[in-house]
Design goal:
The chain is an alpha/beta fold. Helix content is 42%, strand content 13%. The protein has one domain (19-238): Rossmann fold (3-Layer(aba) Sandwich), CATH 3.40.50.300. It has 10 helices and 7 strands. The radius of gyration is 22 Å and the shape is globular.
């Protein structure tokens, strides 16, 4: 583990950085969690509609970052959408029809762990759609996103950028780790071999869909901890919020037992192994 602890990350045009220490990470993340809860209460108070899109290569850290965002907020406000492969019925629908039912209503933050941009990435690279269909999608999606924004949705799009070397390390770590093996699918392995096809698809996607009203925000993610803190801080900056009005909370007095006694019931307690 020593090598992992001392591992350095290098950004383009910058000197290598020491991996952020767990203590420093936890301290900063705790403060950001407080702000995320404040944001949550403001979203509910004002009826805001927020949609956050996460894209990036396999192993870029999307899942871990989403977990860091959502672990201290209400799942009734922060909803995570990670759709499986489309059914035969869904394949026959208008493409965006599959995603639209999950869009936020007032007082909600919806996080897409991969989104409609599957068509510009995995579907295009792996041959699940034709080049003609992919190019048409890139032409149409800015119009669709403009409609979203004009309807009152705050749309924030993130691309997590991981290096070839770090992606390899992360995917290899999943092979023999019983906690991570579920993260490594046959599709991940096929995608891994097509690094430059994905690079070309990403470049065309940015060129077509990086608009003034729905820009792409790129997060370097070789250092997972720094990436999470940077992204959460940026997300908080995208949505003006204040502390929502709230009455002071005070626990009421408990009722008196009025003769109640615990029954002598043979409860089946879980064995205390720890």
């Amino acid at each position: 583990m020593k090598g992992r602890k001392d591992r350095k990350t290098k950004r383009d045009g910058a000197a290598p950085q020491e991996r952020l220490k767990r203590k420093d990470y936890d301290k900063t993340l705790g403060k950001l969690h407080v702000e995320l809860v404040k944001l949550q209460e403001w979203v509910k108070h004002k009826g805001l509609k927020i949609c956050v899109v996460f894209e990036g290569r396999d192993g870029a850290g999307k899942g871990g970052t989403i977990k860091a965002i959502t672990e201290r907020v209400s799942p009734r406000v922060f909803r995570v959408v990670a759709l499986p492969a489309p059914t035969e019925r869904e394949k026959s629908q208008m493409y965006i029809q599959r995603y639209a039912p999950h869009f936020p209503a007032a007082g909600e933050v919806v996080i897409f762990d991969r989104s409609w941009y599957n068509r510009a990435g995995v579907e295009r690279v792996m041959g699940f759609c034709t080049e003609e269909v992919a190019k048409k999608f890139l032409t149409m999606v800015p119009l669709f996103e403009k409609t979203m924004v004009e309807s009152g949705v705050i749309l924030v799009k993130y691309w997590l950028e991981v290096s070839e070397k770090e992606q390899t390390r992360r995917l290899e770590s999943r092979i023999d780790d019983g906690r991570k093996i579920w993260k490594l699918s046959p599709m991940d392995l096929k995608s891994y071999s097509r690094w430059y096809d994905y690079s070309r698809a990403r470049d065309e996607m940015f060129k077509a869909t990086d608009t003034d009203f729905a820009p792409w925000h790129v997060v370097r993610s070789d250092d997972k901890r720094r990436a999470r803190l940077n992204l959460i801080t940026h997300l908080l900056d995208q949505i003006p919020y204040k502390s929502a009005p709230r009455e002071k909370v005070k626990l009421p007095k408990r009722q008196k037992p009025h003769g109640y006694r615990e029954p002598k019931y043979p409860y089946k307690y879980v064995k205390e192994r720890y």
